[in-house]
Write a structure and sequence with these properties.
transcription regulation; membrane; Arc Repressor Mutant, subunit A; RNA_pol_sigma70_r4_t2; about 75% helix; mainly alpha; 10 helices; about 0% strand; single chain; transmembrane helix; sigma factor; Rna Polymerase Sigma Factor, Chain: A
């Protein structure tokens, strides 16, 4: 186990692709705490978050070879987050089909958003802070998390047209502040 603790996440994924259980355990140890926090920011249902976490790491185990063999270098941590975000959207979509309200499970932006904004230029950070929360949520989902309009609509529990309108309003507001 000591050998895997010194590896970066991309090396761990390559080892997981070869069936290395220790590498999987180490990747899980490193990524599961922040992944759970990020998922809980978007969904208050702990049972659903636990289900998404389980499905995410099962997908990591099964698809590690696809990531490890990809010609483009990418962040393994980003890859894990992308899987989790898509699994959450799928779970919320399933709930919507079962006539439950996915938007009731969402939370408002938190300290992670503020930390991200602090990393951006002062002007950009200030512009993002001045956006209405619903506009920031759309930008976060589409730009930072890489979700499609449809996935963002499901995640936020609003129609696709609303997502498009909010994205446009956010771009206009940012453009005005930054020019």
């Amino acid at each position: 186990m000591g050998a895997v603790t010194s590896m970066d996440e991309e090396q761990l994924v390559r080892r997981i692709a070869r069936g290395d259980r220790d590498a999987f355990d180490e990747l899980y140890r490193r990524t599961s705490p922040w992944l759970a926090v990020r998922l809980r920011r978007r969904c208050r249902d702990d049972e659903l978050v636990a289900e998404v976490m389980q499905e995410t790491y099962l997908a990591v185990w099964r698809a590690a070879a696809a990531f490890a063999g990809a010609a483009v270098a990418g962040s393994a941590v980003g890859w894990v987050w992308t899987i989790a975000a898509r699994r959450l959207v799928d779970a919320l979509r399933k709930r919507a089909r079962e006539a439950q309200l996915p938007h009731a499970a969402l939370t408002a932006p938190t300290a992670e958003d503020e930390a991200l904004m602090a990393e951006l230029s002062d002007t950009m950070g200030a512009a993002l802070c001045r956006l209405a929360p619903e506009l920031r949520q759309v930008l976060q989902a589409m730009v930072l998390d890489g979700l499609t309009v449809r996935e963002t609509a499901i995640l936020l529990g609003v129609p696709e047209g609303t997502v498009k309108t909010r994205a446009r309003r956010a771009r206009i507001a940012l453009r005005e502040v930054l020019s």
